[in-house]
């Protein structure tokens, strides 16, 4: 392109811009925008719109207990159960008959024992839901998945959250647990115990059985609340 042709091209471009230029509806800067706003304002408007969507979703979760529980890691089947306050709350006779319903994180560890299907996970999730609806940060994890959080399978990266979340439900301790997994579970509980972070552990194992695998873990559990649920498996009786 020679100088004359270049000058002609520049003149035509300037004429086109002048003929088609319009001010941005947000900031007023003139230009040939593809829409009603300049690129900077359009980007800012998109970000603000996405933030409003996130805020609406968060507000929906605040008023949707099942959504809160699912986000905390509770399985959908359990999270979408129509929770009612349990008719019978367990108590720890060693602690002046403190009822689980009245527990507010002191002592930090709660051990819920008892046979399969007696409502251990339900009671733990009832308390977790109450905590989440009140604005607290909580989490739920099956005990057999804890090793992955530490050693890098599908739960990789969750270890820090599990160690720091305000209230953690550690469910089904002992069921189908891998032989090398007790160390990871013990490490997680020891970390939370040391930081006085409230933790509810459910298990169909007795403390003597846990002691046979990990005496240190059993000792820490004995320092918390020990509450045992009795009765038959009620799962088949639910409507």
Shape verdict: elongated
Distance between the termini: 83 Å
What CATH calls the topology of the largest domain is Rossmann fold
Largest sheet: 5 strands, parallel
The name of the CATH superfamily of the largest domain reads P-loop containing nucleotide triphosphate hydrolases
Q: Report the uncertain regions.
A: 153-157
Q: Could you estimate the helical fraction of the residues in percent?
A: 40-55%
CATH architecture assignment name of the largest domain: 3-Layer(aba) Sandwich
Number of strands: 9
Determine the number of helices (DSSP H or I, runs of at least 4 residues).
10
> What does the oligomeric state look like here?
single chain
Strand content range: 5-15%
Which class do the helix and strand fractions yield? alpha/beta
Number of domains: 2
Strand order across the biggest sheet? 6-7-8-5-9
The SSE string, one letter per element, is HEEHHHEEEHEHHEHEHHE
Instruction: Give the CATH class of the largest domain.
Output: Alpha Beta
What do the pLDDT scores average to? 78
| Rg from Cα | 28 Å
Question: How does the SSE layout of this entry go?
Answer:
Blueprint: H1 3-20, E1 22-23, E2 30-31, H2 39-62, H3 65-71, H4 76-79, E3 91-92, E4 98-99, E5 109-113, H5 120-133, E6 138-142, H6 146-151, H7 159-164, E7 167-173, H8 182-194, E8 199-203, H9 207-213, H10 215-222, E9 225-228
Parallel strand pairs: 5-8, 5-9, 6-7, 7-8
Antiparallel strand pairs: 1-2, 3-4
